[in-house]
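Human: I wish I could look at a protein chain and see how it folds. This is the protein in question:
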Amino acid sequence: MQLANRYGCQHLDFGHAVILFVLSLVEMLIDCILDDCGLLNISTHEHGNIYTKNMDFGGEGPHDSGDEHREHLRRKNILMSIEVVEKATANKIAQVFLRLVYLNTSSVFSIFGAGKGSCWVPFDMFMENAMDGRHLHAISSVEFLTELSKTLQVLNRATWQETFQALWISGLRLVQRGPEALEGPFPHLYSRLCMLLAIIPLSVATIVKEEVDKLDGGMVSAIKEELVSSLQILVQFSGLLSPPPATVHFANTAARKAAIVLSNLKSGNENLYGYSKDSSAIKAGNMLHLIVEACIARNLIDTSAYFWPGYVVPLEASSQAQESPWSSLTEGSPLVELKDALMVTPASSVAELEKLYSFAVSGSEEEKLAASKVLCGASLLRGWNIQEHVVQIVLKLLSSFLPLDSGSDGRYVQHMPMLHALISGISSVDAVHILSMYGLVPEVAAMLMPLCEIFGSLPPSDHRSCNFEKASVYSVFSSAFLSLLRLWKFHRPPIENALSRHGVFVRSELSLDFLLLLRNSRSALKNLSNVSKSSIFQLDPSLQKPVYIDSFPKLRAWYFQNQACIASTLSTVYNRPNVLHVANNILKIICHKVPKDGILSVNPQSTSNSSMGSSPPPGVPEDMCQWPTLPAWDVLEAIPFVLEAVLTACAHGRLSSRDLITGLRDLADFLPASLAAIVSYFSAEITRGIWKPVMLNGTDWPSPAATLPVVESEINEVLAKAGVNINISSRPRSVMPMLPLPIAALISLSITVKMEEFSHLHGIIGQGIEICATSSSWPSMQIIGALWSQKVRRWHDFIILACSQSPFTRDNTAVSQLIRSCFTSFLGPLVDGRSCYVANRGVADLLGKTLDERARLVVAPGFLYMRSCRLFPDNNFVCEEILKVVIERARALANDCSSERPGHLRSDCMPLSAASSLVEQISSLAATMLCHAGGLNLIRLLYEHILPTLLLSAGEDKLGSAGHVCSLFEGYALAYVLLWSGASIWGVGETSPAYASIYTSKRQRIVDRHLEFMAKVMEGNIVLGCGETTWRSYVLCFVGLLVDFVPAWILEVKLETLQKLASGLRKWHKGDLALSLLERGGNKAVTSVVESLLGYAGAQFSE
């Protein structure tokens, strides 16, 4: 029958031969039916069907009895063939064979019906988590949101219209929660709008492209129609469409554009978009207008959206239109004259960006400087419709100075003003956060490293202190160096504080090594044609070469010195006298007020001999009042020795606190990059616990006494309203506030920073204060907040919210209360072991509706959880606590469904369908909280250690001890949590190469190990501690979820594991589930399925 050739099988084993034979029989019967009916038969020639002959149904020959007989046979054959097909496909074994064919072919049937109990809270929590500017992401939010959308579409059994609609609504809620009135050094509203108007449309575009590539032509328009429907239905959410005050102008502009297009169409004006530069005549624009324009800009929909009912607001009599400065630029106006206007007006098209880029590449030096500043202005922060193009041009311009060539110092110095403008432009809080959301942290780090290497090796032109606002060797180096350090946790030790009690890494901190590894792996992936076509960002192929830290010897030397200083105290013997000379010279300058008889020096015992007969290195002046004109790397190498000397002198009373802070401030003014070394050293010293606390009396050290009681009271108020009732003040009011010396020095130094410099330095200072507050056992965060609130009163609310996260860094009781409060706000409270349904619950109560002035100290528990979950001291405890709450909720649902109550009350029982929906909501929330708290490593721990331990544990409170119905619900809930958490991280099927390299590549081993554990328990090799009912419901539910939702996971599991698990299921009389599991094992499991079925059929026959 030539089955191998017909179906394209290279190796036809027994199992494949059987199932393809059954398929061929069914196909031949269907072909005969179609042929007898006179319908087009496209496969007869493929099968070489010898049972059919071409009959002339339209002939005009004589109508004799032979023709009547043949017609009667033909009709009878049709009925008989249909009956045979029906009987064949009704047979259970034949059905399994045909399912095997279906599951192992490339045909895609991904149409889902509307899901019941859909839960989209992972969208909201992911977007809110992405707004935390303290934590940068190694992968693009576009990639992550794309995979999360595909996962939730499958798990919720939803259509793409429902999925897109949930995306838009989550994005709108994110914007409404934006704390616009809150001031502080954090990502503001523009980052939230970037998520709604750039990241989400790009994710949708990726999904649409993938679906179009998979589907036939008739289905292409279907997904576009679903997208349009998801947009049109947004008009029902008028409360979410109200634009924040900062975006009213942009919304009005978008509405006016649509109105003018329709007006010009009606009047026959060929210039459809003419006079669309002013929005003064339209006052009714909303967020839908901005979303539609973002979709049009990315070719997701076309301008037919302007014809949607109620979309266009009629034009009123308008004032004269104001010309856009970008139009003036494209028409030939000088760039330098338009610079200020262009910096505050985002570009509206890629053509305008290309015009600006031409100035940056081939213009005069003044034009290059102006173009660099404009690119990093409003177009980068607010040009949402073309933001990905702006980011790409900025990086392309920055990369034009690479690769680093030997002897090219003059070229870098020549372009120093332009480089200074570019680096400063991408260093703002919002700009760094936007680059992080586009997943470009590794690429930016690789571009900054050679700039740090070259400018750190050049000596400054004079002895004056560095001015951040002016281009100089030190200012460019400091900007590049501090920007590079903000991209990774430079002050964290490589191993300390990263191990769980099981010896497994549970923290996911970015390191420089990891960033380079990620960047190089991405470069290798982009060299593949199929990846490069789908990539948003395309850089010069010459820049795709691997980057290694060994290529930058000066940076490498500092990197390892910094790690050594963090890991241990400075060595008492240092064999480089030149570095000690520099350190001693810096000490003389910053401690020039110290009497000569008490002058400080670095390690005088070791330097007295080594410095005899040696002269200072070039660039070190003999005059102690002049700063050395040394390359920045030489200064940075000496700073740890300076810091050890001054901190020790201050601790022993040989240096006053005022002189210490003044000296450190002078050092930071001279070389701003030195602030990183100061933060790193002080952060490391506070973890050693060897420094005595100092009195914050207002004389030697600044006093927080004036504001500390108010700050503590407001922190307690924020926590109480989030459901956390603890007292953060453990000291009596009469006791003077104290801080360990390194924290006191760092916070005193930070409050001396000028506010105009703070945007450059906050990323470094903020990280240092965070690590000091979390690493020290001393309750210091409220004191730090009180000191800072005295310095910048307008940041008071921001400071209170930031300090409210500190109790969760050391107090597991607070963590437990916060976790329970999250479940209560989302699902409602539990009363006497039963669910209590209240009106106020869901996403709005979990994450909050808005942060406004009227409720400035009301923070939703979910919002507080997302801001503090990365700082939890023990992620194992977090996981176990979340599972406890899940079990409690499952038991409450069982009680709600229980019929063990008086007959007249049974009508109040919850139906099982509603309970199933609630189990999914509980599980989705729990899984999302787990993923954000510990990421991939915690989910691995959940699969391999925590959940197996829970199932094996015995005791009074063991699983399955609360009754039969409760035990069933416990197993179901745990299975759902496990599947949701894994799917949220790994995806449900094939993922993009960039995503797979970080997340999905770990899936196979982890899932296989967990299924192997289940198989060993079913074989009796491991003794359970939980109840049998809980175990059975857990296994059956989890395997059923694998079969129904993530069959791609089963394909990756070893055949031996699947066979063991299937054997155990058959012993439980779950043969159908066992067959379904094996069916989805891919080609490797076909023979096992066939043999199993034939054995089953033989047993039936013998009986």
About this structure: Residues 689-873 form one domain. The first helix runs from residue 3 to 7.
